[in-house]
Specification:
With 287 residues, this protein is α+β, with helices and mostly antiparallel strands. The two termini are 35 Å apart.
Length: 287
C-alpha cells in the first residue's frame, strides 16, 4: 500500500497541509491490523508524540516510542502495533529530494559538515529528538486544529526551523550525512533499492518509484546491472530468503510467506517445491 497516497486521499483521518513539495501530517494512527505492509515514494520525516509502533525494514527492526523519530528514505516497510500500546500520535512530513536539497543548501554555511560519517545504505535512519526539536514540531499542532486558512510562508518557516534543528543536533550526523549526499548529487543506486526492498510484494512500477525512475529506465538499468529481468531476480532472492528462514528460524510457513513477499501459502509452497524439489515443510524436516 502506498502510504503517501493513503494519507493524501484521507484528509478527514490524517490532518494535513500540502505545500509545494511537502505534505504536513498530524494524526492519531487508525491502524487496526497487527501488521501493515506499506511503502513510501518520498522521504518521510516522522516524530512520535505518544504511543509506540515497531517498524521492520529489510533485516532491521526499529521501535518508535514517545519523543523519538526517524527519517524513512523511499522504501517499503512493515508497520507493527505493539501488543501493549496500540495507540500512536505522530507528526510526519513527506519531503521530496529536491526540497530537502534546497533547504540543506540554504543552511549549508551553518551546518557541522566536517568529518561526517559515511553514507548509510539503511532505509530507516533513527533520529535523536532534543528539546529544541520537540518544541518545533509541537508548536505546529495548533495550526492543524484551526479552520482558518494559513499563509504557506508560516508553515515553511516552521518546517525550516525544525529541519535546521534536526540537522545541527550532533546526534543526528548519520541523517545529516544522508541529506548532504543528496545535496551533492547522490542518487540511490538500483542495487541499494532492490537489496532493501525485494522481500515486499510490490509492483515493478512501485520499485521504479522507490528508485525515483520511470518504469522503462528502471527495467533498463536493472538488466544492465544484474544481467537478468527484475521478475526473475526478485523471485530468486525471495526463495533464497525463505529457504534461509526455514533453516534458521521457528517461523511458520505462513509467516515466512508474508515476510518474503509471496501472495499466499499455496503459491509459495508450489514455487518453493519447483525450486528445491521439496515443500517448505519437507525441506524443514530434512534440515
Amino acid at each position: 500500500m502506498n502510504v503517501y497516497d493513503l494519507h493524501k486521499a484521507n484528509p478527514d483521518i490524517f490532518k494535513q497541509f500540502s505545500i509545494k513539495d511537502v505534505l504536513f501530517l498530524y494524526y492519531h494512527c487508525p491502524q487496526k491490523e497487527k501488521i501493515l505492509k506499506l511503502h513510501s515514494p518520498y522521504n518521510q520525516l516522522t516524530f512520535s508524540i505518544s504511543g509506540r509502533r515497531i517498524f521492520h525494514q529489510g533485516e532491521h527492526t526499529y521501535t518508535v516510542n514517545k519523543n523519538s523519530g526517524f527519517l524513512l528514505r523511499r522504501a517499503a516497510f512493515l508497520q507493527e502495533m505493539d501488543d501493549t500500546i496500540k495507540g500512536w500520535e505522530l507528526m510526519a512530513f513527506y519531503l521530496k529530494d529536491e526540497f530537502l536539497k534546497k533547504i540543506f543548501n540554504e543552511f549549508r554555511p551553518h551546518l557541522p559538515l566536517r568529518d561526517l560519517p559515511p553514507q548509510t545504505n539503511e532505509m530507516v535512519i533513527p533520529m535523536d529528538i532534543n528539546d529544541r526539536i520537540r518544541s518545533c514540531y509541537l508548536s505546529l499542532i495548533p495550526y492543524f486544529n484551526q479552520s482558518d486558512s494559513l499563509p504557506q510562508e508560516i508553515l515553511l518557516i516552521k518546517l525550516k526551523e525544525l529541519l535546521y534543528n534536526v540537522f545541527i543536533n550532533p546526534k543526528n550526523r548519520i541523517l545529516l550525512s544522508y541529506v548532504n549526499s543528496l545535496a551533492n548529487g547522490y542518487k540511490t543506486p538500483i542495487w541499494e533499492i532492490m537489496e532493501a526492498n525485494y522481500m515486499y510484494n510490490l509492483k515493478l512500477s512501485d520499485y521504479a518509484q522507490l528508485a525515483n525512475k520511470s518504469l522503462s529506465s528502471f527495467k533498463r538499468e536493472f538488466e544492465e546491472f544484474y544481467g537478468t529481468t527484475p521478475g526473475k531476480w526478485i523471485l530468486e532472492k525471495r526463495l533464497e530468503r525463505a529457504k534461509r528462514l526455514i533453516q534458521t528460524s521457528q517461523k511458520t510457513v505462513s509467516e515466512i510467506t508474508f515476510e518474503c513477499g509471496f501472495k499466499n501459502v499455496s503459491h509459495f509452497s508450489r514455487i518453493f517445491k519447483e525450486k528445491f524439489s521439496l515443500s517448505p515443510t519437507e525441506y524443514r524436516g530434512n534440515n
